Amino acid sequence: MTRILQISDPHIMPEGQLLQGKLDTAAALKDMLAGLSAMLDRVGPVERILVTGDLTENGSAAAYRHFLAIME
User: Fold this and answer.
1) Residue 63 CB neighbour total at 10 angstroms
2) What's residue 43's pLDDT?
3) Are 25 and 70 in contact (CB under 8 A)?
4) Per-residue pLDDT averaged across 1-29, rounded?
5) H or E element: which one contains 67?
6) What is the number of other CB atoms lying within 10 angstroms of the CB of residue 56?
7) How many Å apart are CA 27 and CA 42, to the nearest integer?
8) Per residue in 44-65, pLDDT tens?
9) Quick one: pLDDT at residue 41?
């Protein structure tokens, strides 16, 4: 069975910036990915990760670079 994980609307900011000056969306995404990694022995391998919605908050090249670095 193919397992696909969907993540929606991470709203990643450029590195070092917080969403609305308060929320560290990069840390939230990293925490979620770490939690997933810790669960893989129970749920089995995930073949694909599908990220939908707003990948970044402002659409800047810096925000997309930050998103890609996290997802690597």
Assistant:
1) 21
2) 85
3) no
4) 96
5) helix 61-71
6) 19
7) 24
8) 889 999 999 999 999 999 999 9
9) 87
What is 10-64 written as a DSSP string? --BPSTT--BTTTB-HHHHHHHHHHHHHHHHHHH----EEEEES-SBSS--HHHH
Q: Which residues make Cβ contacts (< 8 Å) with residue 58, sequence separation at least 6? A: 13, 14
Cut 0.85: pTM above it: yes
User: Left if phi > 0, otherwise alpha if psi is -120 to 50, otherwise beta: which for 63?
Assistant: alpha
**8 Cα distance to chain centroid:** 8
Confidence of residue 15 (pLDDT cuts 50, 70, 90): very high
